[in-house]
Structures
1.
Amino acid sequence: MNSSLDDRVRVHVFVEGRVQGVGYRASTCDMAQLLKLQGWVRNLRDGRVEAVFEGSPDQVEEMLRWCHQGPPAAIVKEVMVNHEPPEGLRQFEVMRSV
């Protein structure tokens, strides 16, 4: 990893709407890997999708813009974003639903 934690940002997001059963997690993973982000994504029992993204400010900002749209079948109603200190994650993965 070339970048130090000093120039990385981390966001923890919760996405509401029709975001389960529409390929949102897989598409999020594809987009995050395309943007070279680290983190994870998973479904929540209440119908939301939860994700963490770590990377450069520009890459994370682009990912957040994507989250407001999602894949074609998704209907995103709200994206709640919390900024957190980066943890230095090494990859992006789809995690087990909780």
2.
Amino acid sequence: MRVEALCSDVVMFVGEAVESVATAFIDGDNVLLVDSLGSAEDADGLRHVLCHEMGKTVRMIACTHFMSDHIAGLSRFPGALVMAHRHFRHAFLMQNRPVAAFYREPDLVLDNMALRWGRHQLRFLYNPGKTMDHFSVDVPTADLACVGDNIVGNIVYLSRADPALQRAAIGRIREFGRSRVVGGHIGAFDAPVLDNALHYLARLQALVVQLRTQAPPADAAARIAAIRIEDCLAPRVAPTAFEREWHGNNLEAIVAQSIFALDAALAAQEKAA
């Protein structure tokens, strides 16, 4: 597990399982966690570092969204209050690989909320995108925003999501004006990562719509599966191994779930008119 101090009282943890991220906001001996990693082993490591090595107590865990690869630590901190958006069950039930052992009912269910934690003001803002329960955590005092899976590095993950909602969610995050962004996977990034994710989404959509409108369905599926990530990334952005892997997952989801099929149909209607 990678441990990185983002500032004197904010520490980011990146687990081995799907590079899931947890962010610890520290107030004296007390910790507020945003997300809690993606495996039991990573969650145990998180607890060891925070509770045994640092001598802290986790008092609260805020879930940016209620998918199993971000809530593994809920049961590792039984004394902590858990907060999530009111659509948390929708997100848990619609995921591809739910892990019932990680599930824990939230103690606090919210839409929007502001919380003072030590020197930081955390704004929990409902921001549906990748899932309908997503919220972003805007932290002006640390000049960062925790955004969950509304981005995955310089790309987005499309499975079971509405691309239009994802685009709007990233736009709202941009409006925060923070210089750093903590994603749900991989780690922390400079603010231009948001523009890179939007570029990837727009470019991928354009390529898929073009293929769906110009090729027979059978040919289109094969050609969609062959779209290169390099043809979708913003200029001067080199893909990481993780982004390359999840681009492949996107292509599988696009074919299996008919993502962008509506956009292609609307484009064909407009062309015919």
3.
Amino acid sequence: MDGSQVRQLKPELDTFLTRYLPLFGRPENHEHAQRFVYGLLGGQERRNTENIAEAVEGGVVRTMQKFVAQAVWDDCDVLREVRRHVSESLGDEDGTVNVDETGFPKKGEKSVGVKRQYSGTLGRVENCQVGVFANYCSSKGHTMMDRRLFLPNEWAEDATRREEAGVPSRVIFRSKPELALEMVQEAMKEGVPFQWVGGDCVYGDSPTFAGGVRALGKRYVLDVSSEARVWLAKPQMRNVRGSGRSIPITKAISVKEVAATLSSSDFKRITVSEGSQGPILYEYAELTVWVSEEGLPCETAERLLVRRSLGQDPEVKFHRSNAPPDIPLQCLAQQRSCRWTIEQDIQASKGECGLDEYETRGWIGWHHHTALSVLALLFLVLQKLRLGKKRASDDRAPGAQHHSSSNRSASLGRGRDRDVVQLADGKKPCRKGMPRTAPARRTCGAK
């Protein structure tokens, strides 16, 4: 979106922001918030505070910097209202909360939480910050709704660095799965309607995350790494003398070893989503397993999904799900496919809403900037959905020229997968609560 488009949508943006402005405290902060969101959506080359202040009418660099880095307003209140808005606009009882993380490359050692760590943004270990994000996805659309800054343990234990960056005393070290679980719990507490949780192997391999989602009574389809271990039958246990605990008699095996025992007849082709040129297919096999969590079997059996791409050199992925047996495999495969929506939302937040273009170093600045970017993305998603509906209505008017749905598809809130294979048996996929499309795939762990 460029500046002229933002100006055209200014009445809609003013109306959208009306419900949020009281959350920014003092009246002068209301104007700063409006200017900042305008600037994030304005399409200028770089959307840091200085450039935004120079690009929007009435912007003052020092004042805007203070608004982001120091002003007294609670980003948690803003995001709480975002989740209410998302529930109203996109809510569906069969919806999904997806979690994922992304890196923010930084120089030096002063930016809060920065360290040399893996960043999928760069595809290597680099000096960066990492944020863990949650989005909401339903058949109505998808958008970002929450985030947490990952604070490495060396930061959490360094009082001097914490004080310089303004890290609150209540903040302690939390792993990425723990941060993700906090966001899922928060969404449930606030009444966000969802039944499913999705995530890659960072979260599927985590007993903390998977167990926490089970405790909430939610279903998940989570990626697991090829080294995740399972039992194909519930293992017998034996007591360890003097320890008061039991351990399995037999050893668990890796899901990669399980996959090696499968034959071609164990797989069937399933449509997972709709692409711009037709349905997208993978081959899936399913087994009942007991997942090893910290060396012990889960109390209940789960479903292990082995997915492979089509072609002579297929890529194999593994997913675990606690969904009951009466949920068809096709629905689980499609449920897993909606995890791409958080990747698309992260990309859109960076490309369209300046999520990664901040230059503030402190705790408050990071949280203020990212909250405003999430807010800007919600406006963008709702407007593109609104305009898409309007165009669809116009297309149905007498004498109007008809276009394919792919031509009307918005890039935010909806997307399209580039990989297309025609469904062989012509069966209709299960679509309840599922988005229609997906972006390009990536390997597990790349953020």
